[in-house]
Amino acid sequence: MWSAEEVLGRDAATLWHPYSSLTEPAPMHLVRGASGVRLQLDDGAGGTVEAIDAMASWWCMIHGYRHPVLDAALKAQVDSFSHVMFGGLTHEPAVRLADRLVEIAPEPIRHVFFCDSGSVSVEVAIKLALQYQVARGNNGRTRMLTVRGGYHGDTFAPMSVCDPVNGMHSLFTGALKEQVFGPQPPAGFLRAEDDPEYLAWAASMRALAAEYRDQVAAIIVEPILQGAGGMYPYSPACLKLLRELADEHGFLLILDEIATGFGRTGTLFASEHADVAPDILCIGKALTGGYLSMAATLCTTEVAHTVSSGPGGALMHGPTFMANPLACAVSLASIDLLLSQDWAERVGEISAGLTSGLAPAAALPGVKDVRVLGAVGVVQLAGPVDLKRMTDAVLRRGVWVRPFRDLVYTMPPYVSTDEDIATITSAITEAIAEGN
């Protein structure tokens, strides 16, 4: 086994990490193992130190690490076959998973297209919407209507529907498709439909939809909680309005549940808070329980049949690793594991723990807001977070977080105990109290 010094040295010389510089690489922490909700980090002296993963590895490890049920599903599939092309061939894990997804997805979702990643699932959703409009004779409907503050992935079509100013892709302005952006929904999950800010936002969205009705193919948003755009919750009333506008103008409604699906906000899918069903649904992240990269784009029969009867006669997409059997097998095990327990009660308990544990942070200097929705806890600072200082300060208290922009947040695994949640919230609060 290489020493920590050798691994980290070679890493710095060779590897690009997400949103990082190769010439000025950020400090790295070397993972030697992981189990349950804890990472084993190399201490640089031949040993390891443990840290609770308060990020669930960017929100996907809902069952934690090395879960015996998921390990067993993966090993059993390896003993059969690990991969086979999905063109002209099929296999039981894919069929069983598709059936399960249709069973739990909002009505009237009925069909499943497997993808490599969340970003690709958004690419496929946008393709579906464009092909749908062409099949209906609406060749001029080539744009997406969305809202500011959103994030949908790092490939080109998803980048075009991310926030064009405050998002992470402003360097690509001019190279991206110009979409139609409405204002960010007013903040607050509990905001009422008669609230003046909601009414002003609704009026603006109605005007945009009417103005661009002949150009827009679909509305695309993250339902209820904007994730990487700022961990920003908004009212279910906003989602209801977007469904109404889609129906009124002949747009499709695409809901990006990559981060919010599988219980994270307190309902299995975040759209359930508004009792709204999409025409196209994107899922990923927690789909495989964090074991492998996989996502899916789901749609209604009306969308699927319209696209299939249009020019080309098919959805024009086909990844090499589509419906990978390993990913399908572990996804099915992850979903069954989630639904076999009272996950909603556990998410509610985590939410209560985050609410009480992060509440003291609201009184700290430099804190702008503290908010919790489901198993998501956020402390928003008044200015940009000092990433290295904050990460190190929280890690000294036995917790791993990955702050960004002005946010220190947690999306812990659902298997976190009450004691784990208390450790996470106290570590974040104490680290902020030290000063940013």
UniProtKB/TrEMBL annotation:
<keyword id="KW-0663">Pyridoxal phosphate</keyword>
<dbReference type="InterPro" id="IPR015421">
    <property type="entry name" value="PyrdxlP-dep_Trfase_major"/>
</dbReference>
<comment type="similarity">
    <text>Belongs to the class-III pyridoxal-phosphate-dependent aminotransferase family. BioA subfamily.</text>
</comment>
<dbReference type="InterPro" id="IPR005815">
    <property type="entry name" value="BioA"/>
</dbReference>
<keyword id="KW-0808">Transferase</keyword>
<feature type="binding site">
    <location>
        <position position="402"/>
    </location>
    <ligand>
        <name>substrate</name>
    </ligand>
</feature>
<keyword id="KW-0032">Aminotransferase</keyword>
<keyword id="KW-0093">Biotin biosynthesis</keyword>
<feature type="binding site">
    <location>
        <position position="256"/>
    </location>
    <ligand>
        <name>pyridoxal 5'-phosphate</name>
    </ligand>
</feature>
<dbReference type="Pfam" id="PF00202">
    <property type="entry name" value="Aminotran_3"/>
</dbReference>
<comment type="pathway">
    <text>Cofactor biosynthesis; biotin biosynthesis; 7,8-diaminononanoate from 8-amino-7-oxononanoate (SAM route): step 1/1.</text>
</comment>
<comment type="subunit">
    <text>Homodimer.</text>
</comment>
<protein>
    <recommendedName>
        <fullName>Adenosylmethionine-8-amino-7-oxononanoate aminotransferase</fullName>
        <ecNumber>2.6.1.62</ecNumber>
    </recommendedName>
</protein>
<feature type="binding site">
    <location>
        <begin position="118"/>
        <end position="119"/>
    </location>
    <ligand>
        <name>pyridoxal 5'-phosphate</name>
    </ligand>
</feature>
<comment type="function">
    <text>Catalyzes the transfer of the alpha-amino group from S-adenosyl-L-methionine (SAM) to 7-keto-8-aminopelargonic acid (KAPA) to form 7,8-diaminopelargonic acid (DAPA). It is the only aminotransferase known to utilize SAM as an amino donor.</text>
</comment>
<feature type="modified residue" description="N6-(pyridoxal phosphate)lysine">
    <location>
        <position position="285"/>
    </location>
</feature>
<dbReference type="InterPro" id="IPR015424">
    <property type="entry name" value="PyrdxlP-dep_Trfase"/>
</dbReference>
<dbReference type="InterPro" id="IPR015422">
    <property type="entry name" value="PyrdxlP-dep_Trfase_small"/>
</dbReference>
<feature type="binding site">
    <location>
        <position position="318"/>
    </location>
    <ligand>
        <name>substrate</name>
    </ligand>
</feature>
<dbReference type="InterPro" id="IPR005814">
    <property type="entry name" value="Aminotrans_3"/>
</dbReference>
<feature type="binding site">
    <location>
        <position position="58"/>
    </location>
    <ligand>
        <name>substrate</name>
    </ligand>
</feature>
<dbReference type="InterPro" id="IPR049704">
    <property type="entry name" value="Aminotrans_3_PPA_site"/>
</dbReference>
<keyword id="KW-0963">Cytoplasm</keyword>
<feature type="binding site">
    <location>
        <position position="285"/>
    </location>
    <ligand>
        <name>substrate</name>
    </ligand>
</feature>
<feature type="binding site">
    <location>
        <position position="151"/>
    </location>
    <ligand>
        <name>substrate</name>
    </ligand>
</feature>
<feature type="site" description="Participates in the substrate recognition with KAPA and in a stacking interaction with the adenine ring of SAM">
    <location>
        <position position="19"/>
    </location>
</feature>
<keyword id="KW-0949">S-adenosyl-L-methionine</keyword>
<feature type="binding site">
    <location>
        <begin position="319"/>
        <end position="320"/>
    </location>
    <ligand>
        <name>pyridoxal 5'-phosphate</name>
    </ligand>
</feature>
